[in-house]
């Protein structure tokens, strides 16, 4: 998974699905389409690969047994749907016939994503480490068994949750990148990034960094990640717009990742892409700029 050259990631799954006409306003968010329209998820993966992404991030960010059961999906079917997120991405990857080496990263979102109340932007859920372990452990095993190239442990807002995930990753010994959701020089829960990155610096983790944040916060965070961990950095911020959890809509203006990518590379980023509100057009421009 290591590379001397930048590795282009994809962009946001949900915004790409919304642009294709899908309503993702329920609590399952994009995970609903694993059940209702898996072909649309495949189409988004293909669009990002065609745009130049070398990594497809699966539609499992908000997919959990608890979340599916809450929506009336039986446990066995919920487990099948979570695993299918990897199968869908792998089938698209394997159908590409141009000889480029592409990967599938199984998305592992935070506990707060399942709550669907915006708490993935706050952390500090008020639950025990045992509860977090019981939530994350079985899902990690389902995703790994489905055969991704690596895990994308992403949008983690809190060092306490990170510590649980890192312990599980060490036990499972499967490659992953680990990225925090941040605000300025702190996690969303308010912990210093240097402390947060140090927690994630274990052997199975191939890259440490940030995602789902403001583009202007990336460079300093990448520099800190590289300094603290000595590992390649991963960086895929939002477009610059801000999510209003109460109103459930985006506000503000956007910035293409292309305009800042050279700064992120200079700071030590190896894995570069986009998160919320960054689409295939943006990734195409990013890939062209970096190449």
From TrEMBL:
<dbReference type="InterPro" id="IPR036589">
    <property type="entry name" value="HCY_dom_sf"/>
</dbReference>
<dbReference type="Pfam" id="PF02574">
    <property type="entry name" value="S-methyl_trans"/>
</dbReference>
<dbReference type="InterPro" id="IPR017226">
    <property type="entry name" value="BHMT-like"/>
</dbReference>
<protein>
    <submittedName>
        <fullName>Homocysteine S-methyltransferase</fullName>
    </submittedName>
</protein>
<keyword id="KW-0862">Zinc</keyword>
<dbReference type="GO" id="GO:0032259">
    <property type="term" value="P:methylation"/>
</dbReference>
<dbReference type="GO" id="GO:0008270">
    <property type="term" value="F:zinc ion binding"/>
</dbReference>
<dbReference type="InterPro" id="IPR003726">
    <property type="entry name" value="HCY_dom"/>
</dbReference>
<feature type="domain" description="Hcy-binding">
    <location>
        <begin position="1"/>
        <end position="290"/>
    </location>
</feature>
<keyword id="KW-0479">Metal-binding</keyword>
<keyword id="KW-0489">Methyltransferase</keyword>
<feature type="binding site">
    <location>
        <position position="276"/>
    </location>
    <ligand>
        <name>Zn(2+)</name>
    </ligand>
</feature>
<dbReference type="InterPro" id="IPR051486">
    <property type="entry name" value="Hcy_S-methyltransferase"/>
</dbReference>
<feature type="binding site">
    <location>
        <position position="275"/>
    </location>
    <ligand>
        <name>Zn(2+)</name>
    </ligand>
</feature>
<keyword id="KW-0808">Transferase</keyword>
<dbReference type="GO" id="GO:0008898">
    <property type="term" value="F:S-adenosylmethionine-homocysteine S-methyltransferase activity"/>
</dbReference>
<dbReference type="GO" id="GO:0033528">
    <property type="term" value="P:S-methylmethionine cycle"/>
</dbReference>
<feature type="binding site">
    <location>
        <position position="212"/>
    </location>
    <ligand>
        <name>Zn(2+)</name>
    </ligand>
</feature>
<dbReference type="GO" id="GO:0009086">
    <property type="term" value="P:methionine biosynthetic process"/>
</dbReference>
